[in-house]
Amino acid sequence: MIHLIPSITVMKGKTTRLTPGEFSKEKVYDQSPLELAMQFEAAGVSQIHLVDLEGARRGSSVNYQVLEAICGHTNLKVSFSGGISTDGDISKAYEYGAHNIIAATIAAYRPEYFASWIMSYGRERIVLGADSIQGKIAIRGWQKDTAIDLFEHIEYFFNRGLKYVKTTDISKHGAMSGPSLELYKEILERFPGICLLASGGVRSVEDIEQLQELGVWGVVFGKAFYEGVLTLKDLEKFLISV
Predict the structure, then answer these.
(1) For the chain: N or C, fewer Cβ within 10 A?
(2) At what angle do helices 205-214 and 181-190 cross, to 10 degrees?
């Protein structure tokens, strides 16, 4: 059964959604990150993706208090991302309760260093963030494009023990136009056994079913839920055995 992973993005302690890479275009939602996390847990969700938007922009995580609140008041496994760039950042995230961390920018700038984390902290606790647009990696909260090829990037870490990768087709993010099925299919074919967290474009139960048929390990979703297009009731069938 595919793992459902709601995304809670945070800026200044509040639940926020952005136009990809545009920090000036934010939408703040009424429910706090903790309220949302508790709602997800009550519905049967076991894991969430908590994104520190300010941390992603600054290159240093800042919303640890939100992480601490969620981990202290729920039993959710929290994947924490946004500005993780040092061993100290990882230690702090774990100290505040994170189950694992997702890092992207440091993996692009210092691949050897990121690869060492897989060995030091274990394959279950380090997730590669490999978000791309037109096949090239984007970093710093999608504010900065690179010339790094997505597949070459994943391959480098896959050959060094990587187990989990989260991939967003940035052109699909928030568009609710359907996930990039062909992209995910190619990743799964090229990297047998990898646990792929697919993100971007999910808008329906049918989309999730298609991802499950492909063999995707987990689906990260956000806007469709926040805008009421996809409800927790809709997701019940996927939560029974997770």
Answers:
(1) N
(2) 20
